[in-house]
Amino acid sequence: MFFDQGKLEKMTIRAYLPQNNPEDAPQVSDDPEDTYVVQVNPESYTRNQQLHYNYRQGQGFSSSEAVYSNSQPISLEFEFLFDGTGIVPPPSELGDVPLVGAVASALSENEAFNVWDEVNKFNQLAYEYDGEIHRPRQLLLVWGTLEFPCVLTTVNYRFTLFKPDGAPLRAVAHCTFREAVPDAERVRKDNSRSPDLTHLREVKEGDTLPLLAHRIYGNAELYLEVAQVNKLINFRRLQAGSRVTFPPVDKEVTS
User: Fold this and answer.
1) Which residue numbers delimit the Contractile injection system tube protein N-terminal domain (predicted)?
2) Nearest to 80 by CA among 170, 166, 178
């Protein structure tokens, strides 16, 4: 009878593998070390959506037109419980991670749930700087039908119960995850690749001006014009984190 009942789906947070080619589809890691299973599913969460408009109002006018600027990425807010009192069972990875990791977890001895260890494990996955990719890792938050590619933007820990020596027995983490969609996927989703619009791009590791020109215009040969507009002296070596403006061009040039 037990196996006829619905399985409890625990929320999991999984890290993406580093991408060597930004044009490739992102891949989620299968390593159990790159997965965190929450101890208790959240009771609720908040979904935030925000639109930005520019308001143009002439002198003497009582109202103004709202000119659409952009749509901000969706953000989700959760509260996660870390409980080491023994009242709440530790998280089970069965069914939530690859088979090898699940079998290893099932065969290992049950260890006491240590709040500090779990907080550090969560931080290592979602918060800490990864020297290989020069940033914290991109995440996939999975809970039932919810699949949310994102990054952790804020986390606040509130410790509420302690052992006599001051070690925490219970903590609540208030986390905000912000949607993070890779450029290639975002362009396909928005269908907004248009050479007659001005584009602003942030340079990432491995980007070159011809590659960016190909992404925007579909014509890598336009990189010289882009270099001239941005007054780039050494356009062969772009600085990661800098921003490059791609001006509108005649559609006939890109065809």
Assistant:
1) 7-187
2) 170
